[in-house]
Amino acid sequence: MAESTSAKKHLETTLLVPALRKKHYAESLTQTAGQKTGWCSNGVPSEILDAFGINAVYVENYATVCASKRLSSGFCRAGERAGFSQDVCGYARILMGYLLGGAEAPEAPYGGLAKADFLLVNSYSCDSRMGWFATMQQTLDIPLFVLDAPYQPGGGCTEPAHMVYTESQLLELVSFLEEQTGRKLNKEQLRARIDLSRRSADIQTEIYEMRRAVPSPLSAGDAYTVVWPGMYMAGTRECDDFYARLRAEVNDRIANKIGVVPEEKFRLLWSGLPFWYNMALLNYFEDFGGVVAIENAYFRNEKSCPSQHPDPIKDMAITSTMRRHYAGDLEQRLQLTLDIVRDYSIDGVVLAYNPSCRLMYLLQPELKNALDRHGIPNVNIECDMADERTYSEGQIKTRLDAFIERMLALRK
Amino acid sequence: MIAAGVDIGSSTSKAVLIDEKGILSYSISPTGAESVNAARRVMDDVLDKAGIAAEAVSYVVATGYGRVIVPFADEALTELTCHARGAHFLFPDVRTILDMGGQDCKAIRCDSAGRLLNFVMNDKCAAGTGRFLELIARVLGLTLGELGEAALDAASAVTINSTCAVFAKSEVTSLIREGKDRRDVLAGLHSAIAVRVYNLLRGVGIEPQLTITGGIGKNKGVVREIEKRTKLKCLIAEEPQIVGALGAALFARDKLVKQE
What we know:
With 412 residues, chain A is of the alpha/beta class. Chain A has 14 helices and eight strands. Chain A has helices at 17-29, 46-51, 59-68, 72-81, 90-100, 128-140, 160-181, 187-210, 220-232, 237-255, 312-318, 330-343, 358-373, 393-411; strands spanning 37-40, 55-58, 118-122, 144-147, 266-271, 290-295, 348-353, 378-382. Chain A has a four-stranded parallel beta sheet, sandwiched between helices. In chain A, strands 6-5-7-8 form a four-stranded parallel beta sheet, sandwiched between helices. In chain A, strand 1, helix 2 and strand 2 (55-58) form a beta-alpha-beta unit. Chain B is globular. A five-stranded mixed beta sheet of chain B has the order 3-2-1-4-5. The A-B interface holds A 372, 377, 380, 382, 390, 392, 394-395, 398-399, 401-402, 405-406, 409 and B 65, 76-81, 104, 115-121, 123-124.
């Protein structure tokens, strides 16, 4: 395995995540008798899957694990040998390489994934994902359920029609899972999961708010790690405890003015996904007194709505489960990022251009134009989020160094 | 007070030696496989030319892709910052710089003090770079200098559709085989490069005056096409390849002035 280039973690709570992740993947390989395994995309509500006792495997996360362990080149090559173009999403190529690479694929991290009984994909935000899951369905010859999310210009579920449609989709998901597992949905259990999940999400929102502090108490290097329990353990006591602990640590750092760097000279926003095979790049600015104070991917600035209905499915449809904060329409995402620049006292923006992620890529040119109009320094770096063969150290460092020189010159 | 700037590029290495009055000497040499050796070679050369001992040089700033591996450098700065500074020193009214080097092209904007304001670089593509022109020169059996000169005599430029270095090479070969005039093909090629770099320039916003630095600044065919596109006269330094090293030397001299 290649040398690790993981981000330097500044918070003690962050250091708990690798063990949680390892345990999560180990448990997913030791299913209880009769337990079904579903391979899922992000956005498939884990609370519902948990209420059915389903062994949920989030494959996009597994792709990031492969990338962070510097195995993406081997898996991507295997995926490409199977016929997937280099223009296809890096996550998809990694998983297709994992599935079809055979002996030519690298050794799978965490001992591989539990064998899937069915596939679940959420249509929100990403069109590549739909084709990818359809291909996996053909490859594995197992059922696929598409949780179709309505396109919502302007953001969340504000239109009654959206809510009705979302509810119908969730009910179809429940029917599908009932058929696959031979079990009925345990609504009480779901209600408990939802309540806990919302509480954890609200703590996360609080932490995002707290990150406005100067000096930055928690930078992107930690943030891209601590987002993991909220994405893959939502609705569990462990997840809730994790964020309560993280909030306390961030609070403590703010109270004692403990920053990520000793003397904060400039604050950056990372726009787009990180390069999972080189998370240390997020710390690169720290030697120069810079800090990536915030990132717009996975960003949360709204608390969950209070419960709207006693029925948990109806409640989920009405409130927050399918509401998106970052993956809305372009105008909304653009404004959100500009608001972050203002609210988090950002001096400059790193635009991670990632051609294989159409969702993230589309925003960047528009954002660059807007930042230029507002006179906010910015730099483009073009790389895939998961395929490390696209990373060119010399080119990236030259851009970042020049950007840093510019940021420091502006301070003089 | 003697300061030096060393620019280790992908194709060539450059060094400039300056004192309070101005440039004492400069050197340009192919980088080759060993960047550290190239740095030593150009540094030794400027010292020889100026008749100065290495110990007399009080501060060295390195730049270019090899900036971090220059063993005798006191500081490293990017070529973007250094080209802005060097170009501004030579042409104080310059606000836009197009650095066309061996490996990449950079459009740079600077302010009235020569400070870097904004930049755009070509991404993972050799079109419009020195390497690309070297490839074409080899195909046509010309030197790099002859390449630009030949295009100036073109009757009408042939359209080159490919901007990818590899595909453009194939296209040029086919056009020559079809019997197209070499000068017309070259004019078309230079025009294709100009279109590409014009987009880079637009990315930073073109503000007069404009200068082209780097080795391609010596190619009259490319310069003419860029002037046509931008509708601006390009200022070309006597030796456009040393502008980055000159900027680095100026930063080194600043340091010494500050220390004094």
